[in-house]
Amino acid sequence: MLLLPEALTLVEARDTLRLLTVSLEREAEPQLIVDGGQLRRFDSSALAVLLECRRLAEAWGKRFELRSMPTKLIELAQLYGMDEVLGLAPDKVAATV
Fold first, then answer.
1. How far is CA 21 from the centre of its chain?
2. CA 20 to 30 Å from 42, out of 28, 51, 69, 83?
3. pLDDT per residue over 62-97, tens digit each?
4. Class of domain 2-79
5. CA 4 to each of CA 16, 32, 47, 49: distance values in angstroms, whole numbers, following the listed order
6. Contact present, 82 and 47 (Cβ < 8 Å)
7. How far is Cα of residue 65 from the mean position of the Cα atoms in its chain?
């Protein structure tokens, strides 16, 4: 399981993606789970990072799942029409406030 940091804005996006990519390469499980339970401060860059993680997981033949994503991030994904692509449909993810 990969854990998102507390902040994931444009400032942190590149470094966060680099760390997640390295972790993904080392992950032996057939399913990549990304946990957003610690995520408190974010912008649309967080969605871009999650999309790239999804793309990488699929390229390596892994299933992709998001868990404990903040409600505001789910709403942002819905606003951009990315909620289903990321698996953030309300019935598929346990959100945090």
1. 12
2. 28
3. 999 999 999 999 999 999 999 999 998 765 455 554
4. alpha beta
5. 8, 13, 12, 10
6. yes
7. 8
Give the span between the Cα atoms of 64 and 56, in whole angstroms. Answer: 9
Domain ranges of the chain: 2-79
For residues 70 and 97, the answer to whether their CB atoms sit within 8 Å is: yes
Cβ atoms of residues 39 and 46 within 8 Å: yes
Residue 9 contacts residue 43 (beta carbons within 8 Å): yes
Question: For 34-52, what is each residue's pLDDT tens digit?
Answer: 999 999 999 999 999 999 9
| Structure confidence at residue 28 (pLDDT) | 86
